[in-house]
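re: that chain from earlier
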Amino acid sequence: MSVHEALSAGLNVAQANQGGRRTSFPANGTAGSFALYLAEFQSQSLGSLIGSISGTSKAGGSTGLAELLGFQGTAANPLTSLASLTNGGSVGGLSATGRNISLFDPESAYKMMSVINNAEVAYKAEFSELSQMLSCVAELRQEAQSLGSIDTSADNGSIESRLQAFANEYNDWVRRFDADMQSGGVLANTRAAQIARYELDQSIKDIFNGASAGLNGLRDLGFGIDPNTGLATLDTARLDSALAGNKQGAIDTLHEFSAKFARAAELLDADGNFIPRQLDNLSRAIRYIDDNKSSLQAEFGLGDSARPSGGIAQALAEYNKSYA
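^ sequence. v structure.
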């Protein structure tokens, strides 16, 4: 089960336990969508969950949701009614088991907080791995750009060596994130990661590189992607044949590929595009949970602590080392 499937299952259980509408947690599950689902849970459920409210103001929490959802300062703020449910003050104290005993159904609220605890871990793990992917894409871009400097003075061995170096860099990238992108992996439902892999794969397979020179992409130079492994391969005999028959055309093909691949990698790395946008969403979600965790625990109870394992645990450790 992937990270987001687990969060979805947990959220649905928490809602179903108190008769609320079941709503699937979205695959992109980041700041705005997480806040939206939290707001839905509160607005649909807290009316029946909360048995007594007294004490301190909770206006800050509703404002945080409004900011994430884009309703801050607008006249039609759908979270205003939510504030009326929670702003009456802090709920009663927590029991020894971490439940909010002032609620009508402390167990459902506790399970909701368990979902939030797991979401926090999931977002940090995803942020860490996606940041690593961004760095690797930048390295791939540099390796591809180096192919654009090959000219007719380069001998066959040098050209082969440069192409093999690019293949090795690409394959290291595929292997590095392959487990993350499988079902249940840290990036299994991260669209930005899936798009990055697809776009770079398609750049290598593009048959129009070298078309003006009578060639059909890198495949005519013996360079391709193994359909079973997704790894780059180089047929040196075919490369030698292409260089012997049309060296200038082969070099032109490499130049076209170099420019297009580098451009695709640049777009993936551009501000507001794919990976950077997802990282921004994750950062906002992490910050939202961090800023509001105490108040959320006061409402819902402590929840079960997240217990990450495998790749998620490794990515979380890297996040805590590099970003916490």
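The longest strand covers residues 223-225.
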